[in-house]
Amino acid sequence: MSVKRQKARGQGRVRRSVPVDLGERSYDVEIGFDWLETIGRRIATRIASDRIALITVPSVARRYAPMLTRGLQSKGARVTRIVVPDGDATKNLSQLGKLYDRFLELGFDRQSAIVTLGGGVVGDLGGFAAATFLRGIPFVQVPTTVLAMVDASIGGKTGVNLPQGKNLVGAFHQPCGVFLDTATLESLPRRQRSAGLAELIKAAAIWDLDLFEQLESRIEDFLDLDRAFVLSTLERACAIKAEVVARDEREGGLRRLLNFGHTLAHAIEAHARYRGILHGEAVAIGMVFAAQRSEAMGFAPAGTCDRLTALIERAELPTRIPDRPRRAYLTAIRVDKKKEGGKIHFVVSKGIGSAGTTLIDPSELIPKGWRAES
């Protein structure tokens, strides 16, 4: 996976570009610092739409939407800001219907476009609206959280939740581009930075031992937003995601590895009704569970779980599974979208930097006698 590097014109800042190679649907993930208005101009040139909906959340809208909007308007487009509530509970069919109504009020056609500015919730919701309105209109991702930057914005997965489970309604719809401004992370609460680190740790745990070791040596530097370290680790994580997506766009096999930790995470989130726990926090807990089960089932060498848990704890993330009955977890896992013939594709660790999948019945994954606090 090649990575392009260039100097930001007139600013002396390094920008990096990670290609996502999908034939005619290819695009770049462009990474830089303090360049939101320039991002807007690049998007305006790329999509050439006369009507753009900028979908965001309140806190991001106040701080960053004006800069991005100035750039988006550079080619004469009419930009309408649509602010949706923050939080995973916003990813629902009701909110999706409100977006459709707004697009119709604005007179959107197939040449209109959507730009999402915010975290994974905005990207998933706005992306799914783009995938389904008029059978598909262009969209661009401008993620402002660590989690969205390294995972949710790349690869074209879009969707909303149902009460029964997470992301049960969705579509693959690739963006026209993904633009990262790492300066936006400086206004992110530390808890949000930690939550995003879960996906960065996940990428290293399944794919890249060297990246895992870098995080082991300097993870506090990421939390403290050391600019050079943030840029280099985000670049590598994006390259991992891009490589996996290029080889398996529609999750036929290899891309399933990116769900490491997510089987239990989605169950935890569903039981919490998507409130009170961040997605990355649930993924952190899910990875510890996955590593425990991987060792117990003979896939991972002894010590894998301890090493992963130690890094997750240094990232200031939870590791203990919420104390709910086994049957509650089984019920949630059985509606997981990755099931096949009553079994689920569970991602197992094969040691730090390597992973695989196994098709397993949920009752074997969570055997009798298992307790959440174990």
Mean pLDDT: 92
Strand segment tally: 13
Distance between the termini: 40 Å
- Main sheet: which strands, in order across? 1-2-3-10
Large-scale geometry: globular
Structural class: alpha/beta
Tally of contiguous helical segments: 13
Tell me what portion of residues adopts beta-strand conformation.
15-25%
Which series of helices and strands comes N to C?
A: EEEHEHEHEHEHEEEHHHHHHHEEEH
Low-confidence stretches: 8-12
**Rg over alpha carbons:** 20 Å
Q: What level of helicity do the residues show? A: 40-55%
Please, could you describe this protein's structure?
The protein is α/β, with parallel strands linked by helices and 374 residues long. It contains 13 helices and 13 strands. The strands form four sheets. Strands 1-2-3-10 form a four-stranded mixed beta sheet. A four-stranded parallel beta sheet has the order 5-4-6-7. The protein has a three-stranded antiparallel beta sheet with strand order 11-12-13. Helix 5 packs parallel to helix 6. About 1% of the residues have low confidence.
Keywords:
374 residues, alpha/beta, four-stranded mixed beta sheet, four-stranded parallel beta sheet
Brief summary:
The protein has 374 residues and is of the alpha/beta class. The protein has 13 helices and 13 strands.
What does the secondary structure layout of this molecule look like, with pairings?
Elements (H helix, E strand, L loop, with lengths): L3 E4 L6 E7 L6 E6 L3 H12 L3 E6 L1 H15 L5 E6 L9 H13 L7 E6 L1 H13 L6 E5 L2 H7 L4 E6 L2 E8 L5 E4 L8 H18 L1 H15 L3 H21 L14 H10 L7 H18 L7 H11 L11 H8 L5 E2 L2 E7 L5 E6 L1 H4 L9
Parallel strand pairs: 3-10, 4-5, 4-6, 6-7
Antiparallel strand pairs: 1-2, 2-3, 8-9, 11-12, 12-13
